[in-house]
Structure formats: C-alpha cells, structure tokens
User: Fold Peptide methionine sulfoxide reductase MsrA from Sporomusa malonica.
Amino acid sequence: MKQIWLAGGCFWGVEAYFCQLKGVLATRVGYGQGVTDQPTYKQVCTGMTGYTEVCKVTYDEKVLPLMQILEHFFRIIDPTTLNRQGPDRGTQYRTGLYYTTDEEKAVIVDFIEKMQSRYNDPIVVEVEPVGRFFPAEDYHQKYLEKTPGGYCHVNLNLVKPDERK
Assistant:
C-alpha cells in the first residue's frame, strides 16, 4: 500500500476520477500544504491559509504503479495553469503532487521533465514532500457519489473501460 496526495483543482472531481481506478484502495479529500491548524472550507476559500484542495489516494502499487497515477493525473488537469482548474480560481485550486519518499520524488520529477515537451508553456505543478493534511468536512467526502450530477470540472469519462474497477 502506498499513498500520494494530488491537488488538481476542486477535490470532488479528482476523488471521483481516482475512485474509479483499479488499484485505488481508498481516497480522502482534504486540505494540504498550508499553515493553520484544522482549517475549514470557508477558511481555505479565503486563500489566506496556504492550503490547497487535495485528494489523498491510497493505492496498490502492484496494480497501479506511481507512473500510471501520474499519467491519470495529467489526463485530468491543465498542468500549465497556475492557481486555476476549470472555472475554479485561487491558490486553493493550484495543482500539486505531494510525496513521502525520495524515490517517489525522483519518479515525479522525471515524469514532469518528460511531459514538458508536450506543452508550450511551463508546467507549474507543485512537487513537494507532503506537509500538513487535514481531512475536509464530511459532506465533501465522496461528494459526487452522494450528489449525482453535482458540479465537476473533471471529465469522469476519461477513465477507460479496462482501467475501471
């Protein structure tokens, strides 16, 4: 079992997308990389806490290696847009990959360097060791599962049939 924290704009869509994948064992949305204790959604939305909306993904690396997670992540984000994904704007919607080991960092950095050739603009995805993480309020957890037809900037149909659980 491994874990990675993904910031790809609104965490509802990131979670809903990754929940569909074979090899994902659990997800938890929350607030990562900020400076205050126990932030609330309202506080994070001010842009003053330093937090970004993240999805903690627990996965089986034998089924879904880190490289494939990164490929999926880049499938659903615009890695060249700073502090915005879809219509959501603000530092809380920045993109980021937050890791726990130097080995993971090396894989992520190498992946981004290779991906850069596909884009005209620089990739602005943060790559940092995971810092603070506080789970979001209960109503945010599995939000799109609880709220069919709810707002989502992520195209959930990008998961191919052979990638689904």
